[in-house]
Design brief:
The chain is of the alpha/beta class. The protein is built from 11 helices and 11 strands. The strands form 3 sheets. Strands 6-5-7-8-9-10-11 form a 7-stranded mixed sheet, with helices on both faces. It has a two-stranded parallel sheet with strand order 1-2. Helix 4 packs across helix 5 and helix 7 crosses helix 11.
């Protein structure tokens, strides 16, 4: 929650935010500091050896308590930088990608045109907010006035508890998480001697309307809190066999694709059109080019 406060405050102020994953090593954080020369560094992990004096994020509320809660009355220029996001550095050293205020707003507007987010959504945040996928999607949900829940720890047990306790309707996930959750369901069915029943229910569910699918898998949905209806996936293609099982159980799988440089969503399916062999059509304000060599 404190991270969200800081993020929104920074963006509303027109300053530049440089989010870094809390799991990053001191070396990675110091390289980000060296590259961006920040005025302030907030940390949530004690004992770091950083090249710049840092402030504990837990002290944020105390530090801002004396300030007025009234709007600042500032207007931000769209061409001003809003974020510097460092890529994962999987194949090379991480590089900082500069995203402007307009980059973020354009992605949010186009996303809401493709997916009509209702105010009734209750999103469970399980991905790092240092990734533009989670960050931009969170801003999109907040822009529509829907709710986001942040678990203290992102573990299988904590996710299961949050789904039930907060009656979660939506998750942004990577395919690995969906595969893990499905494997747990299959393991539970096997332990109860119901593996054949589970497979038969999936086969039948594929032929039923969505409401009937959810009734068929009542016991599964009870474990998921009873309200999970939409999962938006990205980061990698979802295995079709995994997506089909989730859909057969009455949970819509919406797949998308993007890059940090595209703020990040480039293509995404809609709630009514969800093929597993495609990450969706380009957003209305995106122009894509494919080259063959």
């Amino acid at each position: 929650i404190l991270w969200i406060e800081m993020m929104l405050g920074t963006l509303l102020l027109g300053a530049v935010l440089v989010p870094v994953d809390v799991q990053s090593s001191d070396d990675v954080v110091n390289r980000a500091i060296e590259s961006t020369s920040p005025r302030l560094v907030f940390v949530t992990k004690a004992g770091r050896e950083l090249s710049q004096v840092s402030l504990d994020l837990d002290e944020l509320d105390q530090r801002i308590s004396s300030f007025s809660a009234d709007a600042l009355g500032l207007s931000c220029r769209g061409d001003l930088p809003a974020l510097i996001v460092f890529t994962s550095g999987t194949t090379a050293d991480p590089k900082g990608v500069v995203l402007t205020q307009s980059n973020l707003l354009a992605n949010i507007v186009a996303l809401l045109e493709r997916i009509d987010v209702p105010t009734s959504w209750r999103l469970l945040s399980v991905l790092p907010l240092s990734h533009t996928y989670e960050l931009t999607a969170s801003l999109t949900v907040l822009a529509r006035g829907a709710c986001i829940y942040y678990p203290v720890h992102v573990t299988p047990l904590e996710i299961s508890r949050s789904l039930v306790d907060y009656q979660i309707t939506t998750i942004l996930a990577i395919p690995q998480l969906l595969t893990l959750m499905l494997d747990r369901m299959r393991q539970s069915a096997q332990e109860q001697g119901k593996s054949k029943v589970f497979r038969l229910a999936v086969t039948v569910g594929e032929r039923l309307p969505f409401a009937a699918r959810r009734r068929l898998f009542t016991s599964v949905h009870r474990q998921l809190g009873g309200h999970l209806a939409v999962v938006v996936t990205g980061g990698a293609p979802i295995p079709p066999e995994v997506g089909k099982v989730w859909e057969a159980m009455g949970v819509r799988m919406v797949q998308g694709y993007g890059l940090t440089e595209t703020s990040p969503i480039l293509t995404v399916n809609s709630l009514s059109d969800r093929p597993f062999d495609s990450p969706g059509r380009p957003l209305a304000n995106e122009i894509g080019r494919a080259s063959c060599r």
